[in-house]
Design brief:
- With about 475 residues, this protein is of the alpha/beta class.
- The strands form five sheets. The protein has a seven-stranded mixed sheet, sandwiched between helices. Strands 13-14-17-16 form a four-stranded antiparallel sheet. A two-stranded antiparallel ribbon has the order 1-2.
Amino acid sequence: MTTQVRGGQLARLLGQWHALPGRRRSPDYAALAAAVRGLLADGRLPLGVRLPAERDLAEALRISRTTVSAAYRQLRETGHLASRRGAGSWTMLPGTHRVASSGLWTPLDDRDMIDLGVAALAAPPQLVPAARAAAEDLPRYLGDAGYHPTGIIELREAVAQGYTARGLPTRAEQIMVTSGTQHALDLVLRLMLTPGGPVLVESPTYPNGLAALAARRARITTHGLATDAGWDGDLLLGSLRQSRPKLAYLIPEFHNPTGHLMPADLRERLVATAHTIGTDLVVDESFVDLPLDGTRLPPPTAAFDRHSRVISIGGMSKPYWGGLRIGWVRASAPQVQRLAAARVGVDMASPVLDQLVAVHLLADAATIVAARQRQLTAQRDVLLDAVAARLPEWRVTVPRGGVTLWAELDGPISSALARAAEDVGVRLAPGPRFGLDGTLERFLRLPFTLPAADLVEAVGRIATVRYDLDRVGRPGWREPVVIA
């Protein structure tokens, strides 16, 4: 059954499509078509969705039906819309597009693109030796079927030792290995959240976390993070008490995308409040290994848990390599067993060879992570200097860890800027991807995971198109269109 988006819903997603700087250079119908293409490109408007009828959208946007009709016609011509008389119009993409590693739809010929949509590093040099060593270890596992729903014991013990070293005593029975952190989140939601259940998330937050919650049809409420200070403890705990969600999904370690670090006292109060109201906490620790500038980490959120209310998820993608699809869940032993039972209907187990590679990388964690921290610190400072020099009107809080800057722009132009930057070879993830219903147009996530030269070049290109948005051309007269 095709999903349909109504006029009011699409209007909220489109936001200020017709009022952005420079937009009068194009007819309204062209601006509307471009805005819909932008929603498709950054994943906020799915494929195969039936768009509202022309009259419905025209009323929601308070524009003429002729404008909507012309925009739909242009979308059909560019391959972004398919229509059938009497059946409506539904979204699609031209055959020259594919899904990029960021999850966004992108052109096939994008070899020269500087991709700032992905907040992940290239593989470390230790990966190849670790893979060779893993291949030598593999014969030990070839005598059985190879299914290990909770993961091979060597990796579970290594992950448990990592938690113990952070001050959270953990046994291997409390660890389940997954195929990446996103997979870990999906399994936890399958187990702990009934379809339509209430969930609290931060705003902004990780886009794929929102996608996982949408797949469960969760009823989402948000706690807004301050740009410079992060969580307001009283407001966060007040939101929990008022909404009493079944589950809260939070990123306390170098929050994605803002880079904030939740203080220890708020973690303790958060866990106590969650226990009182019966809320389970899913804590995403994807960036916990990447403190910068000597930042000291507070105790893990689960260190304050005495009632199995906190489930921690993490993985290898950020400190090591995204292509190594290894993640994990830390929970109570009974919860791990229930997760393993739920997993059987999804993918059975993670690849043994990948897990062996992860074991060898974790054995060399001190060397690898220290090098990552030095690399990220240098690249962060280059990106900060470039933004300050080329885009001085933007406000950026220096993150104490993680891999991203969260920039406050000089106007609600994030989506328009992302569309313009694509034309000059820079891919961006606009602010609305990190929130709900088209909000956060004044913000942009800028990862510092690429080489310094690429970051400087990207900021230069972004600055060029940013200023182009303000150049409103002289209005020209057009011949009237004769409709006979």
